[in-house]
Amino acid sequence: MGKAILDYQTGNNPENLVTETSISDADELSVDYLFRGFNDMPKIEQQALRLASGKVLDVGCGAGSHSLYLQEKGIDVTAIDISPNAIEACRLRGVKNAEVANLRDVEGVFDTILLLMNGTGIFGRLKDVSAYLAKLKSLLSVGGQILIDSSDIIYMFDEDDDGGRWITSDRNYYGELTFYLSYKGEQETPFDWLYMDFNTLQNAANAHGLHCELVAEGVHYDYLARLTIAGNRSQP
């Protein structure tokens, strides 16, 4: 994805990304979608950006569209991504503070941490959620907030006559997927990707002393959640 982002930014004959998951067929994603402005973003992303304040960490920033919007509003934002190509594109676009970094290695204190475009995806597997939430909590300032979105993908599984869903027994949780990505004929190494329904996220957050509230719901089973340290919620 980073290569596609940099190709688009530099005009190097960008092509569509081909995406596929363990429960869905191959589909194409136009790279220009990653460069969209605020008015073209989904409502829950717009809401997250409206709520962002203070010192912001934009996790998995991609092409940097969220960071650019906040920067233009005068907000101090640090954009991180594991892809050097994506970070180079961010810098070319004008993101002032863009770093190649894995969330697990980040240090510092932030007032707002953004994880958007299915932010729970980077957790990978349900068993790893605990470690990620502990890390995110350690980065929060007093009164800080985590703004994260995801989707309940239960709708993607077949429904029986009684309203139940057919989910194969090899899954610990139906939101655990394997993600496949290719660009210009080059196949990315398959990686784990996690979609979390709100109740599962809320339960995991509560177990780590984080209050989890539903901020907004999208048009297709997606939602935006806000996590704060329990008993210390000064953000509006």
Helix run count: 6
- Helix and strand element order: HEEHEHEHEEHEEEEHEE
- Structural class call reads alpha/beta
Helix content: 10-25%
- Overall, the morphology is globular
> What is the residue-averaged pLDDT?
93
Provide the spatial order of strands within the biggest beta sheet: 5-4-3-6-7-12-11
Number of separate strands: 12
What's the end-to-end separation, in Å? 35 Å
Low-confidence stretches: none
Report on the biggest sheet.
Answer: 7 strands, mixed
Gyration radius (Cα, Å) is 18 Å
Briefly say what this structure is:
With 236 residues, the chain is an alpha/beta fold. The chain is 24% helix and 30% strand.
Task: Describe the overall structure.
The structure is a single chain. This protein has helices at about 1-10, 45-50, 65-70, 85-95, 130-140, 200-205, and strands at about 15-20, 25-30, 55-60, 75-80, 100, 110-115, 140-150, 175-185, 185, 190-195, 210-215, 220-230. The protein is of the alpha/beta class. The chain starts with a helix and ends in a 7-residue tail after the last strand.
